[in-house]
Amino acid sequence: MTSRGAYTVNKMASTTPPPQRRVEKPQKKPTAEAVRGAIQLGIGYTVGNLSSKPDRDVLMQDFYMVESVFLPSEGSNMTPAHHYPDFRFKTYAPLAFRYFRELFGIKPDDYLYSICNEPLIELTNPGASSSWFYLTSDDEFIIKTVTPKEAEFLQKLLPGYYMNLNQNPRTLLPKFYGLYCVQCAGINIRLVVMNNVLPRAMKMHYKYDLKGSTYKRRASRKERTKGSPTFKDLDFQEMMSEGLFFDPETHSALMKTLQRDCRVLESFKIMDYSLLLGVHVVERGLRERGGRGDSKRQKVLYSTALESIQGDGKAAKPVPDDDTLGGIPAKHKEEKLLIFLGIIDILQSYRFIKKVEHSWKALVHDGDTISVHRPSFYADRFLKFMGGTVFKKTHPLRGSSRRKRTSLHAQRSASQELLSTPTEPQKERKTQSLASLDSPDMSCGGQPDVVPSSADLGEVCSALTLSSSCSSASRSDASSESRGERRTSSATLVLGAATPPSRDPSSAPSSDSELDVYL
């Protein structure tokens, strides 16, 4: 009976239905609007919360600190409610980036107003990466999504980046203002806030992404069909083969800044970076704007192209409203230009995968023309291309001074030919003229640099006559010979009167010799 009861219990247990397993609905991928809203809401919360913390010196552990906060859609005691899906927001090295923002004169209120006041503007990506770009409405900041490797590399780079900015805040390298991560619907979106190199308020008639390499460095057909395409190295050599010309001082400051920045990147084992170059044609821009210039209030120090290459950075003040928006003046042929530039994409280190990529491409193509290369070679090739092909120095007085030297040399050689073989009578007369100049009884009419006192000053014609003539070919008699020798002077300035005073014939030899000595 015991076995029968046990059988009954087991039978009842087998007939009980198993508990139903809870099936979770797959989370939808966040929309572009939800991502933009989460970015603005997360940055607004973290920066606002950071402002309540006291200022202190940046320590080494601050570069590796990560703060995380969960923001549900219904809100909580610490976070506001919102109409976006639930998400988690991470902030990397908040104290270090707060120091970077203070170094560039960015106030917390201005930073929040620029990013959170109005919706972000989504930009197209002309490069080969799959990054998203967002621009703030006031043109100050760009938000770019980065890969996990790039985010990790930037966090490791922060101590050296901190040291470099302390030594030289004026640089063409990217200026990083924040590193964040949005976790929403099982997706991690890492993003970095940087300075905007090309202001949207100034129309860029040409844009270039330059690396100094030639392998596949031409804009694609799809890129060329855009309203504002971004060209590459081979396109620049075809479209602006003469290069961009700067005055000597600006050219020297620009090349020194590029050299310093490239050496910094080389020390960090960074390569495959680019120079983003925007060209604004001044006259075309004035016609498009109807003669009106653009101006805005600058919020960030050292953010314009002109500021980034000039000065020592010790006493910097915000630039007042300027129609050029901080562009560097340059010329191409006869066109006046404004140049905007900056080094971008510096989060590519020469890792193992990059070494394999270079080795594989070098088997098929010339290794020196490939973009991916070791950092030292990449920096040298980059600087050589920028200094030899893109940026050139003007020589405004070179042609005129050369022409002046040539004309003076021709005049001197011509005068030397005329005066190199003096005859014996000329030598005797020159000797006599030296004695006659010292004689007290020499008349004022024989001195070429003294105006005769007997002439009426009202009737004197103040005209400088440049007379040059060659010696007469006919020397038949003595009188004609003396007249020909007297004409041998070249380029003599004579201040004459309307009615020249009469001279004593006996003083003619003295006058001849005096002209020779004066010449």
From TrEMBL:
Compositionally biased region (Low complexity): 465-477, 500-512
Keywords for the protein's UniProt record, in alphabetical order: ATP-binding, Cytoplasm, Kinase, Nucleotide-binding, Transferase
Organism name: Clupea harengus
UniProt biased composition (Polar residues): 1-15, 408-424
Biological processes per GO annotation: phosphatidylinositol phosphate biosynthetic process
Gene encoding the protein: pip5k1ba
Lineage per the UniProt record: Eukaryota, Metazoa, Chordata, Craniata, Vertebrata
UniProt xrefs under InterPro entries: PInositol-4-P-4/5-kinase_C_sf, PInositol-4-P-4/5-kinase_core, PInositol-4-P-5-kinase_N, PInositol-4/5-P-5/4-kinase
Segments of this protein annotated with the region Disordered: 1-31, 394-451, 465-519
Segments of skewed composition (Basic residues): 394-407
PANTHER family attached to this UniProt entry: PHOSPHATIDYLINOSITOL 4-PHOSPHATE 5-KINASE TYPE-1 BETA ISOFORM X1, PHOSPHATIDYLINOSITOL-4-PHOSPHATE 5-KINASE
Protein name in the entry: Phosphatidylinositol-4-phosphate 5-kinase, type I, beta a isoform X1
Main location per the UniProt record: cytoplasm
This protein's GO CC annotations: cytoplasm; plasma membrane
Domain PIPK: start-end pairs: 31-390
Gene3D superfamilies, alphabetized: 2-Layer Sandwich (3.30.810.10), Phosphatidylinositol Phosphate Kinase II Beta (3.30.800.10)
GO molecular function, one term: ATP binding
